[in-house]
């Protein structure tokens, strides 16, 4: 059975959105309070980073091995910050999509989701657009994105599913997760497991790939 466990996070933030991992810890965004949270994989809160002064609507987050990057919908930008919340760089993305959501890093490139245009965007860390991939035919409301290096994994709330794609956007398989949480938003992988945020029940779910 793919389901491993769920971590209730509503007591920390009632709208969990993006999620990433640095291998040891989970880092996730919460729109309520405009914060990023570091927790262990049992759900214990380690620290809170207030990012409202940068962008009040954090929606997606990733880790590049040293720095955190997050998507903010207030100013329609991607932000690079250190692990204490200091702003390093900003990439404006509103010209590509006005509803940026999920975000991931594959070791070289950033990948993010544009919910308005129903696209996945591949971009350099300097903000140069590499390509866009249309995914509206897979799910009408794409949200989170992660990569295991070879494949992309995307959440979609239209069908309450997780989708495995190749990096050209071809669908490999889809996983129905609505029975666990009817609103999968953010997603990340630690190599072995998928971790995703569910907005219906304010939880983080650990899921076998």
Based on the structure, what is the oligomeric state of the protein chains? single chain
Spans where pLDDT lies below 50 across 5 or more residues: none
End-to-end gap: 10 Å
CATH architecture field: 7 Propeller
Instruction: Give the CATH superfamily.
Output: YVTN repeat-like/Quinoprotein amine dehydrogenase
**Rg, Å, rounded:** 15 Å
Q: Assign an overall shape.
A: globular
Estimate percent helicity: under 10%
Count of helix runs: 0
> CATH topology, anyone?
Methylamine Dehydrogenase, Chain H
Main sheet strand line-up: 1-20-19-18
Description:
With 209 residues, the protein is an all-beta fold. It has one domain: Methylamine Dehydrogenase, Chain H (7 Propeller). The chain is 0% helix and 54% strand. The protein contains no helices and 20 strands. It has a four-stranded antiparallel β-sheet with strand order 1-20-19-18, with no helix packed on it. It has a four-stranded antiparallel β-sheet with strand order 2-3-4-5, with no helix packed on it. The chain is globular. The N and C termini lie close together (10 Å). The mean pLDDT is 96.
């Amino acid at each position: 059975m793919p389901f491993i466990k769920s971590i209730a996070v509503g007591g920390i933030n009632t709208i969990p959105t993006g999620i990433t991992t640095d291998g040891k810890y989970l880092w996730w965004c919460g729109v309520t309070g405009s914060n990023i949270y570091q927790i262990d994989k049992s759900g214990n809160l380690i620290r809170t980073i207030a990012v409202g002064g940068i962008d009040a609507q954090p929606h997606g987050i990733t880790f590049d091995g040293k720095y955190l990057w997050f998507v903010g919908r207030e100013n329609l930008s991607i932000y690079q910050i250190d692990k204490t919340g200091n702003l390093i760089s900003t990439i404006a993305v509103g010209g590509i999509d006005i509803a940026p959501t999920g975000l991931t890093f594959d070791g070289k490139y950033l990948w993010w989701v544009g919910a308005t245009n129903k696209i996945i965007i591949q971009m350099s860390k300097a903000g140069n657009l590499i390509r866009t991939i249309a995914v509206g035919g897979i799910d009408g409301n794409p949200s989170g994105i992660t990569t295991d290096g070879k494949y992309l994994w995307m959440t979609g709330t239209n069908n309450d599913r997780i989708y495995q794609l190749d990096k050209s956007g071809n669908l490999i398989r889809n996983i129905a997760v609505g029975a666990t949480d009817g609103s999968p938003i953010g997603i990340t992988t630690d190599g072995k497991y998928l971790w995703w945020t569910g907005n219906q029940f304010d939880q983080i779910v650990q899921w076998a790939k």
